[in-house]
Amino acid sequence: MPRITIVGAGIAGLNAALTLQDAGLSCSIYEASDRIGGRMHSDSTTWADGMVSEWCGEFIDGNHETIHQLIKRFGLTTIDLERARAKRAQNIMYFCNRFYGAEELARDFQALAPLLGQQVQEAGFPTTHAHFTQEGFRLDHLSVSDWIEQYVQGGRETPLGHLLETACTGFYGLDAGEQSALNLVYMFGSRDPSRDATTSRPMQGSCKIVGGNEQLPLAVARSLP
């Protein structure tokens, strides 16, 4: 019988172990950190009255079929974020020790919009190892953090700089200093900031797990030997 090893106890590694178990196969999982769950990591200790926030992946979109199958399998409860959102609710952004309003963000973003649009056009889409333009190649060899320092007035230490860096880190799950600037350009290059000033709205059909998204990897782990 071959020995099977899984490196990483994030949701992908845990689901792989669960799939093997369903097939009657055993495996060993190795995790470098002191917790399981990977990007499904909830904060249930900072807030009062049982409120939970997410350190990492926040929204479970409607097209995440495997995650939804696991949620159903382990009997977890979810919250439909679009239905739960109050009609008059507003997004609150806080960067650089102050509130950053949607109108101010839209104004700051307008200064970048022409540049982003130009870079999207010149880079083309998609950019791959076999298909790329000169601008796509240049942006791919520039990090998100370096792009912000180069093109945002005031750089990363401004509210807009913080927001762009946080958006890319949260969405792609990698430190902005390690990400290609193409991630930022493709994400924001076709966006109209006057209409869509926030980067944190969930997609239609998105949900969260009651008690925190990490309830899912914990449930999967409990089912494994």
Q: Helix fraction?
A: 40-55%
Proportion of residues in extended strands: 5-15%
Number of strands: 8
State the CATH architecture of the largest domain.
3-Layer(bba) Sandwich
What is the number of helical segments per DSSP (H or I, 4+ residues)? 9
Number of domains: 2
CATH class of the largest domain: Alpha Beta
Describe this structure in words.
With 225 residues, the protein is mainly alpha-helical. The chain has two domains: 5-87 and 204-223, FAD/NAD(P)-binding domain; 94-188, Orthogonal Bundle (Guanine Nucleotide Dissociation Inhibitor, domain 1). The protein is built from nine helices and eight strands. The strands form four sheets. The chain has a two-stranded parallel sheet with strand order 1-2. It has a two-stranded antiparallel ribbon with strand order 3-4. The longest helix has 22 residues, at 102-123. The chain is globular, with a radius of gyration of 20 Å.
Primary descriptors:
mainly alpha, 8 strands, two-stranded antiparallel ribbon, Guanine Nucleotide Dissociation Inhibitor, domain 1, 9 helices, 225 residues, two-stranded parallel sheet, 9% strand, 2 domains, FAD/NAD(P)-binding domain, globular
